Amino acid sequence: MAVFTPLNDSQVADFLERFDVGRLVALEDVASGTENSTFFVTTGCQSLVLTLFEQGEHDELPFFVELLDYLADHRLPVPGPVHDCHGIALQTLADKPALLFPRLPGKHPKAPNLTQCRALGDTLGRMHFVSQRFAGHRPNPRDLHWLLASHHQVLAYLAPDDQTLMADEIDTYQGVFGDAGALPQGAIHGDLFRDNTLFDGDTLGGIIDFYNGCTGDLLFDLAIVVNDWASDADGSLDRERHDALIEAYQARRPLTDVERERWPTMLRMTALRYWLSRLLVVYVDPPAHELTPHDPERFRTILKSRIAHGALPLPSA
């Protein structure tokens, strides 16, 4: 159970009085997530999601509210936060920061098909096109600077070959990205795995959990998506899913020549980003609650596949 701060019906009923959303009918704990407490809230007129923020920098929450408001205003399928009767979204409940969202339709795709990949690629391209004009700013907390500063913490837990692999990769990234010109930037999701999307059949019902959102390289976001959505069990890329995602994306935001040049290295860097972050959770900074960490081996496998086989050719814009 991923609810760290329990709530009762009376607390939530009182909380809902701040909003014009109807009276509480049912409250349900959500048994998923790794960082926050989440509840499904049903009122007499709608279904909602209530999130209490347990971890992270709470002073960064206004960035997420402003980003979700901005994307929702541009008709992206994101859960724009519900504002109270005074126009305020960010609240306090049980001494924790709290946000209320509309509950979007659908479920997480376990094995996305080509239609679902095209839908996600199209929406991500739309999101990146408009997010370049978003005025808010939050530095990417998992960029190359983070890799440089953090990888030393896990080296003692790795076999010698993996220590060399990680150190050599980071040297490579410094050579490609360190002194090079900037890539196109904007607000990115930062963690757009399958379990952060909801599909109603083949229709994308929503993109959720923007709490890794930040200002960063748009290509970084796309590489995270391709590594998760288009990788087979052995880490290799599936050409059909890869092409479906990128063709739909480029119909909304064509990649620049510099992005196409750096794409193979960006795939490797985002793979190492998740290998490292999962190693840190296992060995250095385990979750405060009884949750099973994600397996780091998955992204070690993807990284080694990208090194051995490179990237697939990018479709034309």
UniProtKB/TrEMBL annotation:
Domain Aminoglycoside phosphotransferase: 28-255
Gene3D superfamilies tied to this protein: 3.90.1200.10, Phosphorylase Kinase, domain 1
InterPro entries: Aminoglycoside_PTrfase, Homoserine_kinase_II, Kinase-like_dom_sf, Pseudomonas-type_ThrB
Pathway(s) where this gene product acts: Amino-acid biosynthesis; L-threonine biosynthesis; L-threonine from L-aspartate: step 4/5
Key words, A-Z: Amino-acid biosynthesis, ATP-binding, Kinase, Nucleotide-binding, Threonine biosynthesis, Transferase
Catalytic activity as recorded in UniProt: L-homoserine + ATP = O-phospho-L-homoserine + ADP + H(+)
GO molecular function, one term: homoserine kinase activity
Single GO biological process annotation from the record: threonine biosynthetic process
Keyword Kinase: yes
Enzyme's top EC category: transferase
Enzyme Commission identifier(s): 2.7.1.39
Family recorded in the similarity comment: Belongs to the pseudomonas-type ThrB family.
Protein name per Swiss-Prot or TrEMBL: Homoserine kinase
Organism: Modicisalibacter muralis
Encoding gene per record: thrB
